[in-house]
């Protein structure tokens, strides 16, 4: 079976078991402060396990794109070295939300593996949770008994808490799990060692392919376990490993998932895959990493120097440096894999082929930039002086952190020089960085404390800005030394930060409306609307008034609706290739990032402004459609954003059916006239192929025009009320240019006069011609020209000029080439003389300057000049 057939067989099998097949969530996580990337299939269902969202389908199946770059067996620096770990991988999963449990999960997993995929039963081993006395957890006898119906008892193995009790994190849903392992060794190897002894022993050919997690507990902050109100099934099967098993390969990289890319790399490098372990690793790294890089960029996360952007930049640079070092790719090459990858996932994850050109150009730009950095790092290493032939750990870490060098590359270059690397020091520096990073981002989150009976929280802020409500639950959080409270309301008008729109602020008033707490922010966490407050109400029970700051909300809506108009105008002026790549919408301004590969010209910006303001003046009424079937929305021509997770039903925001129609969960004006006016204040580059426009609307735009009018009035007054400002300013510029030429001519004449005067004031000392003089010139360039003219006229010249230009003292030192060869250095001399004027400077051995702030010291400078002349030539 091909990889595509294997994937489809899984989805079709569970579809036949009444599972609803859902699309993969984006690999970049939004609205979950605990994650940057989707690292497990269950991430998109986290709110269902926590009971924080309504269950639409009780049975679900999918293939989820995941990214892991840390944790056991998933450290980035190890990927590509072994045969079965990856950065990005697909996780095939089937899920039950309060429906079936262990019996069906075990039966169906066995049926699929042995009857559909036809894996020989004798190759399979299963594990079950053996219990944990310390936790008070009993052996999972139910799973053991169920497996006995299908598997010989010698192939049913107990597992400890570490291997067979799955937890989402330090807190949250968890439960015992039952893994399925497959023994891919040869018959000869199996005869020598019993496969049961190699399960969970990190053997490269005895690997886990499926994990059935039985969610039945919730881990609280104090470590205790609480039974969940409903039991769930959460399964995950590594797609790449499954393909390897079914295609009877000894490595994931030998399957048709990776081989097309590896063979392409091999052909371009002129190096056969399988010829050498080092080049094999390099090809595996490239084939693996381009998958993670491409899908993360397609989902909207660009490489950068912080957070998720830094992670993807680090992955990209690792791939480039392997290509550079081991495959001799000195020019950008990684980007050429993008079209191959896009074609491979066509019909599976079409977001990549839809953005192929964009992704490829971003990767290319990053490669070009990093290859320059890599070259700089190599030069830095070549200049490094190793003490006792050992490269310090701190320097090795600097090469890694700043220039992207893997430690093995530093070791390789060190060996070529007969040096070694202080690996202990390197590891210490690496650990310190990780510890500091964790400490900076650490959040201490308490357990939820229920105030009123648990219920679904409902957002009503599209229609109301003030409602009567109740507190459902709250918890205390501490970050960077500051304590806050997070509050969940039964109903809330507060919009939670999402889609670029900032969260609402406002007040939570008690029922008497005499006392309140300020709501300082509102965010989403796994679909739950969380309100932030510095303090809690004195009495948490009873009714409250939730009141949104209306002024801030209205101004934010002005900017959000203007963003939609801007997006449509950009497509109209620049082309249909324009797609949103990020946005920020608050009460003060809007920021909009979009795909475009050239600077937007002033003429294009003016045209965009005109279109948006026309739409504002037309006072187009908002057309809001809620709960529209997703496919119906797409077929209507709506703009959907890459990297967003849309449900089966969506909300459509339209301003003129033929102009702006987008899927959006944010809040908007009722009609475009409310926006008032729109003004672009800046246009710039963000990254390769991504531009940014910042703009203002409403009162901020009005203030901008008032300020411009005030500035214009001031300018008119300076020009004596001129009616033609452009002509008046041009006249001034012409006059200024004329005066500058006259001054320049006068200065040249003055330099020529001084030159001939100074020649007669040369003093000969020990065969050196000394000129030490204060020069009355008001141009540093003129002083320089005078010094160079004298150098051409006088042999063995030692020249020191002092100047005072605009009240600032200065020193110029000029030496003949002959004196420089004798060991004199103008830069050293000027630095020493500069101390007399409380300043400093430098330059070249024959010419240097200094500036300072003590004009009184200039006299001493001239007196000291002679002291730098050697006594004997």
From TrEMBL:
SMART domains tied to this protein: tRNA_SAD (SM00863)
One GO MF term attached to the UniProt entry: ligase activity
Coiled coil region boundaries: 722-749
Organism, as annotated: Pedobacter jeongneungensis
Protein's name in the database: Alanine--tRNA ligase
Function in brief: Catalyzes the attachment of alanine to tRNA(Ala) in a two-step reaction: alanine is first activated by ATP to form Ala-AMP and then transferred to the acceptor end of tRNA(Ala). Also edits incorrectly charged Ser-tRNA(Ala) and Gly-tRNA(Ala) via its editing domain.
EC number: 6.1.1.7
Domain Alanyl-transfer RNA synthetases family profile stretches: 1-707
Annotated positions binding Zn(2+): 560, 564, 664, 668
The protein's required cofactors: Zn(2+)
Localization (cell): Cytoplasm
Predominant place of localization: cytoplasm
Cross-referenced Pfam families: DHHA1, tRNA-synt_2c, tRNA_SAD
UniProt note: domains: Consists of three domains; the N-terminal catalytic domain, the editing domain and the C-terminal C-Ala domain. The editing domain removes incorrectly charged amino acids, while the C-Ala domain, along with tRNA(Ala), serves as a bridge to cooperatively bring together the editing and aminoacylation centers thus stimulating deacylation of misacylated tRNAs.
Keyword Cytoplasm: yes
Record flagged with keyword Coiled coil: yes
